[in-house]
Amino acid sequence: MVKLTFDPAMEVTQECVRRRFRFASCQACADVCPAQALTSSQGGILPDATRCIQCGNCLFVCPTKAIAGVTPNTRHYCGDTLVGPFSPYAPTVNELLIWHREYGIRFIAIALEQYESWALSIARLNLVLKQCGEPIWKVKSPEAKAINIARRSFFHAPQENVETAAVRPGLRYLRQLFREQSEITPTIDSSLCVMCSACWRACPEKAIRFENGEIILESARCTGCSSCEAVCQHRSITLDKTRRPAQVKRITACARECLSCHREFWAFDAQASHCSLCQNHLYRMR
């Protein structure tokens, strides 16, 4: 039967941080695309649906789930082992990490000499697993199947005990699975920060938030979208891209009243007398 419907074309939605903030620098999807279907430009990420090979790699690195029209690959597994058939393009480390934590995969039955890109992905995965204190994946030799020349076997040849599934994509989901680890740690330089609130208003993951007179930096939530860096006019925020145990940092602020405009403001210095606007004004006023 001829298929009369078409799958939606790959596109970059308004959730993309490059569309939300002019100075955002994220290009994770473009960097990981093997077909160059996504390219970075001054105007944002430009998709080319005609180049897309539906590998799904972009889904596992996008920090804001901004890719539409692409679905993750369905893969085969038997117990704790990932088995063939394998896609010609290797998955990202992020996808394999989700398989590791969600399905308990610890082995892969593959002939690495035939899948060089998979060999590189497995090597990278094992480096990350060692850093996380997790058991690494081991490679098994694929089992040789006896060939059945019966006519029916050409129409239906199921593999015993083999199941298929596609994992849920996204850095948000990966962060939920690995709450004890963080890949990116946001930090604030209190000597530069004026507490304008732009960063915690822009953060879609609430990795930076202001509660009860404290700025809270929760690295386990951060997906590295760089929204906070894009909106910070004073360059007081940096993202440290080092894998380490997750941490929560709190920076205490004080509520003060400006002597010039008499409005309440927050400051790190308990003796601050003027808000940032009046302090930078020639005549100490807005």
Distance between the termini: 71 Å
Tally of separate helices: 8
**Count of distinct strands:** 18
Shape: elongated
* Structural class category: alpha+beta
Structural overview:
By secondary structure, the chain is α+β, with helices and mostly antiparallel strands. The chain has 8 helices and 18 strands. The protein has helices at 17-20, 28-32, 93-102, 116-132, 171-177, 198-202, 227-231, 276-279; strands at 11-12, 38-41, 44-47, 67-68, 75-78, 81-83, 107-109, 138-140, 163-165, 181-182, 185-188, 208-211, 214-218, 237-240, 244-245, 248-252, 254-257, 264-267. Strands 8-7-6-5-9 form a 5-stranded mixed β-sheet, with no helix packed on it. It has a 3-stranded antiparallel β-sheet with strand order 12-13-16. α3 crosses α4 (116-132) and α3 packs across α5 (171-177). The protein is elongated.
